[in-house]
Amino acid sequence: MSVSGVAAVLARGVTRVTGGALGPYQSAVVRIGFSFTWLVFLLREWPNRRELYGPDGPWSWEMARQLTDGNGAFTVLMWSDGRLWFEAVYLLSVAASALLLLGWRTRTLSVLFMVGVLSLQNRSVFMGDGGDNVIHLMALYLVLTRCGRVWSLDARRARRRERAAEGGEGGEGADDAAAGAGRAPRDVTGVVLWSLLGLVLALASLLPGLATGWAVVFWGLWLVHALWWAVSRHAPRGELRAVLDMTANLVHNAALFVIMAEVCLIYATAGWYKVQGSRWQDGTALHYPLNLDYFTPWPALSEALGSNGAMVMLITYGTVIVQVAFPFTLFNRRVKNVLLAAMMTEHFAISVVLGLPFFSLAMIAADAVFLPTGFLRATGRITDRVTRRIRDRLLPGRPPRRGGGAADPSGEPAAGDPEDRRHRTLVG
Hints:
The chain has 19 helices and no strands. It is mainly alpha-helical and 428 residues long. The radius of gyration is 24 Å and the shape is globular.
C-alpha cells in the first residue's frame, strides 16, 4: 500500500473514532443494566444495610480505615463513622442509581453513581458474590461514556431543545431568543446542580479524608462540566465546541472499547482457569454447587438437575467451551450473537438455580455491550409502542406526542439519516 493509501486509512480511522459516539444503544443499555442492578441490590438489602456496609457490620469502621489507608481505596464513608452519615450516603447511592437509570443529567449522575458504588463496596470489601467487582469496574468506565444519547431523559430534553431551535414547540422568552441566536437555552437546573456539587467538593477538599489523587479527578470533572456548559451556551457552533465534541467522542469510544475488552478478559480468564481444574476436565464441576445448601434456593430443582449425570457433564463442558471461545467469535457476527445468547441464558439459569441474581444481572448487563444495534433498536420501538398503549389506556384524554426533526418518539433517529448511519457499529 502506498503512503497516500496508508494516510487515507488513518484519516478514515481518526474520523471514525472522533466523528461520533459509537454504540449509543449499547452504552445506554449498559448504563440501564448496571444502574438497575445496583439499585435493586440496594433496595433488596435495605433491611441489612447497616450489617453489610454500616456501623453494625462485623467489618468495623476502624478495620476499614486501616485497609483503605493501606491500599488508597476511595470511600466517603471513611470521613465519618456516624450512623447519620452512613444513612445519607446509602440514600445518595439509591437516588443516584435511580436517576442514572432514567438518564437524568447522566454526566453528573454517572459520577455520583460511581461515588456511591465505590463508597459502599470499599467500606466492606468482603461483601459480594463476584458481580460487585463487575459493577465496581463499570461504574468507573461509565463516567467516561456518553451513555445518555438515547433512551434517557437527557435525550428527550435535547429533542425538545432542537424543536425549539427549529421554531417548534417548547421554549419561551429568553430561551426562544437564545435558540434563534444559535445559543443553547438556559439550563438553570444544571447550573444549580453544578454549583451545589462544587460547594460540596470544596468542603470535602478541606477534610483530610479526600486523597489528593481523587481530589484532582473530581475537580477535573467539575471544571470540564463548567467548560462544556460555557461553550454550549455561548459558542455552540464554534471551533472550541467541535474540539470538545471530538474529544468527548474519542474518550467515549475508548471507554466503550475498554468495557468490551474487560468482558472478553473476564470470560477468557474464567474459561482458561476452568480448563486447568480437574473437576471441569472430568465434567463434574457443576455437581458440587448443586449440592451445597448455600447455592440451592430450590432444592427440588437442584436435585433433579444434579442427579442427571449427562446434563451435568454437558453444562460443565458447554460453560468452558463458550467462555473460552467467545472472545474469538467477535470476528464473526453471527457466531458471536449465538454465543452471546447462550451466555445470557446461562447467567439467567445461574440466577434461578444457584440463587445468584445480582451476579447474573451484572454479567448480563456487561454482555449487553455486544448486543446487535438492530436488535436494540427494534426492542426500543416495541417498548415505546407498548408504553404508548398503556399510557393511552390509563390516560385516554391525553393528546398524542408530537414528533419533530429526524427523531421518532422513542428517541431513535430515522433510518437513513446521518445519525442513524453512526449507529451502525462493529458490535452488531
